[in-house]
Design brief:
alpha/beta, 9 helices
Length: about 300
């Protein structure tokens, strides 16, 4: 039996690994608790094969994600969309393998070019880029920033969102300015793993209750995510696939219907151009045995 929350429920950023992880079982858990829509981000390239040396070497990672999304689509009452790109931590992996920061940046930008080609042919919704969330030498920081700027140029060229993985911050107006300079509207830059308050890009808020309460009180556009990693070697890492629907129910029971509509209908439409209501066309039935608790797995 499946619970219905009476609203689209979108997890804006999670990973699925049908080969080593829970894969479709995680999707089923999401649906059972009332989840309807997913944005599935490709796992870091080094988790699904050898380190890339060219844009062609990202193909396996992207194709795996697109195929996974097709399978998830069949199980969702709504839809799933792929978000393809290059994890900013790849630069450290490439440097450790002997590449200079400049050469590593070139490989990463080639990967972004390939991801943007999937957007161009309609097989992906958005691209992902960013810069390391940990301390790096100046040359690595500069190469990472150039890769981020390149992603913004691609977003402007292909009229798509750029999801960002960056350092923890409540103020990323600098990056929003870079996006605007590249021709990409700042609200179409989405900060993955965000707090409830963020200046600059649109925040994709991690589903900690305190962060969500802050986002609700601000009354500004936001999204919700788990960053579920689907890694059997890290079973308790980040948040599980049930978390977004659980938090939506908590918000609804707390009287925050407008905030739920903002996060799961208005913001996806304004940022990505997707209609989570029109794509929600399957009937679901309430499972009275599902209870609200703190479980996030």
């Amino acid at each position: 039996m499946t619970e219905t929350l009476g609203t689209p429920v979108l997890d804006n950023h999670l990973h699925l690994d049908p080969q080593r992880g829970r894969g479709m079982e995680a999707v089923d858990d999401f649906v059972r608790l009332g989840g309807t829509h997913l944005l599935v981000v490709n796992k870091p390239s080094w988790h699904l094969g050898d380190l890339p040396e060219s844009g062609d070497d990202f193909e396996h990672v992207f194709e795996t994600t697109v195929e996974t999304v097709t399978r998830a689509d069949e199980r969702l009452p709504g839809r799933a969309w792929p978000v393809l790109g290059v994890h900013p931590g790849l630069i450290s992996q490439l440097i450790d393998a002997g590449h200079t920061p400049a050469a590593a940046g070139e490989i990463m930008r080639a990967g972004l070019d390939r991801a943007a080609a999937y957007v161009a042919d309609g097989r992906a919704l958005a691209v992902k880029s960013g810069r390391p969330h940990y301390d790096v030498p100046d040359a690595v920081w500069e190469a990472s920033n150039e890769t981020t700027r390149h992603a913004f140029r691609l977003g402007a060229e292909h009229d798509c969102v750029v999801q960002l993985h960056t350092e923890a911050s409540r103020d990323l107006t600098e990056l929003a300015t870079w996006a605007e300079e590249a021709g990409l509207e700042p609200h179409r830059v989405v900060k993955h793993y965000a707090y409830g308050k963020l200046a600059g890009p649109t925040p994709s808020v991690m589903c900690e209750r305190a962060y969500l309460q802050t986002a609700v009180e601000r009354g500004e556009p936001f999204l919700m995510e788990t960053d579920f990693v689907d890694d059997p070697d890290r079973p308790g890492a980040v948040m599980g696939p049930k978390t977004v629907p659980r938090r939506v129910r908590w918000l609804l029971e707390s009287g925050h219907e407008a905030a739920v509509h903002r996060a799961h209908v208005e913001t996806p439409r304004e940022v990505y151009g997707i209609d989570t209501e029109a794509t929600l066309d399957d009937e679901v039935t309430l499972d009275d045995e599902v209870t609200l608790d703190d479980e996030t797995t």
